[in-house]
Specification:
With about 290 residues, the protein is mainly α.
Length: about 290
């Protein structure tokens, strides 16, 4: 395990204390009231060594969203793209198929969903994001935050503005925003409780990369049973990195033969559901470009 993961685990172990301390320090995060109690209970449960089967954090993830074009479960974040013109997220297979069809027919490039002409202008892309933000689109807030965080699309780098926009996106339901906030709070902001809160919220919503990270953090704190439970859930949803950890857990005696077999079957089923010829061709094309 890398030193960064060990360091994050140490920070998490120190940052998650008594229930009373959590209630006091999370008041500003949650806005108080019923949500404060829910957030406190969630984070306090993360201090336990063993997973509670009734803990909402350890329930199976919800079904994956579908691509609006092919209607297959959406692949993980690297296999999809957000379209600023219409606010749709489309899988890489559909994008590849649409671009290939346009090249074959020698027609101008357009959005595969709404047919708006593709823009290569930073100014136009930023304006389209603003239009989507005006419509209350959570992912538009997220991607605008990414632009401020990276100093991209002609915007000056501004971490404060990025945090503000990511929080708005998270409030609107963006799992990507929760994941981005979690990483930022755990690293540059050094705020463990906020980081763990956002990772857990993203994980419960079905963000497998966030759940995988929770497994890494638990493992680095010596909470092997919790780590394996996280990894079995995300592996069952098709997340390959988590499956590798479950395999290691099986070899080291932390995962039963039955649980490992069940996870392998669920992983294959999830991968099969997300697979298509267009997605395979897209991946092969990307590998050729990368090579």
């Amino acid at each position: 395990m890398s030193k960064n993961c060990d360091d994050d685990g140490s920070k998490a172990k120190e940052g998650l204390g008594t229930r009373a301390r959590l209630r006091q320090e999370l008041d500003a995060l949650s806005g108080g009231g019923e949500k404060l109690a829910q957030v406190t209970d969630m984070l306090y449960s993360m201090t336990m060594s063993d997973p509670d089967p009734d803990d909402p954090l350890f329930q199976n993830d919800p079904p994956r969203e579908e691509c609006p074009l092919c209607c297959l479960p959406m692949p993980f974040s690297t296999g999809q793209a957000y379209l600023t013109c219409c606010g749709k997220s489309v899988c890489s297979g559909c994008i590849y198929a649409h671009v290939s069809a346009m090249e074959t027919s020698n027609t101008p490039r357009s959005c595969g969903f709404c047919r708006t002409p593709v823009s290569f202008s930073d100014k136009t892309e930023i304006q389209r994001l603003k239009n989507r933000m005006d419509a209350g689109d959570a992912e538009a807030f997220h991607f605008m935050a990414c632009n401020y965080s990276d100093g991209a699309r002609g915007l000056s780098q501004n971490e404060g503005k990025a945090i503000e926009l990511w929080n708005q996106a998270a409030d609107l339901g963006s799992l990507k925003a929760h994941s981005s906030l979690a990483f930022l709070y755990m690293h540059s902001q050094q705020n463990v409780m906020k980081g763990m809160y956002h990772y857990a919220t993203a994980a419960m919503g079905g963000d497998e990369s966030s759940r995988h990270v929770l497994g890494i953090l638990d493992d680095s704190m010596g909470k092997t049973k919790r780590a394996m439970k996280h990894w079995m859930i995300s592996a069952s949803a098709g997340f390959e990195d988590s499956l590798k950890q479950v395999g290691k857990g099986y070899k080291n005696g932390h995962v039963s033969k039955e649980d490992y077999a069940k996870t392998l079957r669920a992983f294959k089923d999830s991968q099969d559901e997300m697979a298509s010829q267009a997605r395979s061709e897209s991946a092969n094309f990307s590998l050729k470009i990368g090579g």
